[in-house]
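Bumping my old thread because nobody answered last time. Still need a sequence for this structure:
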């Protein structure tokens, strides 16, 4: 019996496809050897965004969803996770947290719940320090992905899971955990973390990892920071694909809105976001995506 693919989703907060301008777009400054292979050596930009080769396809997809003003994380991630046009439902883009009326919609329709109902094992790979659990208890303001995971019955990974290499730090390398009071957690190379994430598909049908430092770098408007973040991310992706079974599995990279690709502004952008598909069925899957509401639908379809 032919095995259905397993899917790894690398969610990058705040990554759009921007102008071909190395003064404002760090993708044209950073050394990105892995991503360069995805792009056939030519960095995607607004006038030339689509890429395809024998193992990977990139399509630009819409994050504005027909609503004016600037896309935000709360509605963008809700749309990505459920396949429902969240800003259209509430009449605006909203974030960074969930709009109150979206909570029951995300709880009922999120991708984790959809896949669990079909018998699939899902995993949210991020690890969280004690301070985050205290914050949730005091403020009860999780991000959309965290809320979706918790409302589907999932449990958040803590420092013990990270120490035992069963989860991935939000900063990829574990460096920030030392500042948070966890000196025992070893620092790892981005490539090592990528290999670790990829290997999680041995246990789970669907794995998601959330990287939000791309959005932070965009808000900082610091070219130095943005380049460093992208180069760390590139090495991380190199680890993911190093042992990835591209003939059987699917690796997807996408985002909720633009930001880091335009350092001329502190705000998010209305630029399209990348939808990168590596591995099995990559051409067909990339062609099927037009906007961020298509992401959850496509993943669920591939696992049916």
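Sorry it took so long. Here it is:
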């Amino acid at each position: 019996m032919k095995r259905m693919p397993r899917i790894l989703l690398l969610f990058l907060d705040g990554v759009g496809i921007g102008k071909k301008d190395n003064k404002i777009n760090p993708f044209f400054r950073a050394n990105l050897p892995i991503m360069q292979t995805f792009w056939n050596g030519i960095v995607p930009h607004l006038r030339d965004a689509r890429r395809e080769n024998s193992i990977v396809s990139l399509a630009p997809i819409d994050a504005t969803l027909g609503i004016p003003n600037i896309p935000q994380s709360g509605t963008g991630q809700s749309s990505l996770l459920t396949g429902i046009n969240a800003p259209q439902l509430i009449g605006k883009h909203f974030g960074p947290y969930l709009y109150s009326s979206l909570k029951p919609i995300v709880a009922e329709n999120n991708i984790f719940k959809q896949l669990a109902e079909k018998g699939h094992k899902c995993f949210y790979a991020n690890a969280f320090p004690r301070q985050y659990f205290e914050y949730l208890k005091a403020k009860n303001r999780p991000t959309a992905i965290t809320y979706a995971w918790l409302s589907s019955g999932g449990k958040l990974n803590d420092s013990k899971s990270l120490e035992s290499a069963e989860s991935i730090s939000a900063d990829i390398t574990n460096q920030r955990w030392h500042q948070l009071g966890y000196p025992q957690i070893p620092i790892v190379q981005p490539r090592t973390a990528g290999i670790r994430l990829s290997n999680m598909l041995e246990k789970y049908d669907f794995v998601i990892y959330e990287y939000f430092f791309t959005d932070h770098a965009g808000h900082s408007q610091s070219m130095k920071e943005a380049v460093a973040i992208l180069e760390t991310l590139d090495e991380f992706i190199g680890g993911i694909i190093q042992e990835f079974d591209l003939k059987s599995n699917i690796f997807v990279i996408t985002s909720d809105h633009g930001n880091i690709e335009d350092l001329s502004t502190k705000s998010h952008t209305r630029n399209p976001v990348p939808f990168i598909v590596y591995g099995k069925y990559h051409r067909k899957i990339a062609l099927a995506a037009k906007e961020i509401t298509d992401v959850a639908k496509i993943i669920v379809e591939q696992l049916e």
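The two ends are 15 Å apart (CA to CA). Let me know if any region looks off to you.
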